[in-house]
Amino acid sequence: MEHSSQVRLNVNGESHVLDLDNRTTLLDALREHLHLNGTKKGCDHGQCGACTVMVGGERINSCLSLAVMHHGDEVVTIEGLGEPGNLHPMQAAFIKHDGFQCGYCTPGQICSSVAVLEEIKANIPSHVTSDLTTPVQLTADEVRERMSGNICRCGAYANIIDAISDVGGVRA
Ligand code: FES
Ligand code: FES
């Protein structure tokens, strides 16, 4: 039985073909094989959100997903969102609102934040959406609920919500 596979990943607009042990997580493929170290390994168990990336426009915990499951997929990491001198509006907002201290959770927070605004725009309800008959409202409660899988040990939560609210246009 084969224990490795050739996996084609499109990461931040660039196509890569990797020979990977079938047990390699997407997180390890990004960090260890493509050397994209912006995506962080916090718990490696799906509990902290530090490893959040976007696949096909939706956020996932990359530590919980095998790379072989993403053959042919489009992946966006924090490096693909923006870079110094050309920041994504969410990256700029995290700086403006001081949405971090140590910064370890920040790439995951930012990838999650970008996807959260898209989820709300796409009218995908969350646990706190009370009225399913009208479009989902962009409220601070919706954002808080949807960001609850992204843990920040520095406790920068209030400023993170301010940053997302600023980009998304949530009223204070
Ligand atoms: Fe993936 Fe914590 S490292 S959820
Ligand atoms: Fe330190 Fe979030 S900024 S863990």
Automatic annotation (TrEMBL):
Function: Oxidizes aldehydes to the corresponding carboxylic acids with a preference for aromatic aldehydes. It might play a role in the detoxification of aldehydes to avoid cell damage.
GO cellular component, one term: periplasmic space
Organism placement in taxonomy: Bacteria, Pseudomonadati, Pseudomonadota, Alphaproteobacteria, Hyphomicrobiales
This enzyme's EC code(s): 1.2.99.6
Gene3D superfamilies listed in its UniProt record: 3.10.20.30, [2Fe-2S]-binding domain
Pfam family, one: Fer2_2
Name recorded for this polypeptide: Aldehyde oxidoreductase iron-sulfur-binding subunit PaoA
GO molecular function annotation: 2 iron, 2 sulfur cluster binding; carboxylate reductase activity; metal ion binding
InterPro entries tied to this protein: 2Fe-2S-bd, 2Fe-2S-bd_dom_sf, 2Fe-2S_ferredoxin-like_sf, 2Fe-2S_ferredoxin-type, 2Fe2S_fd_BS, Aldehyde_Oxdr_Iron-Sulfur, Beta-grasp_dom_sf
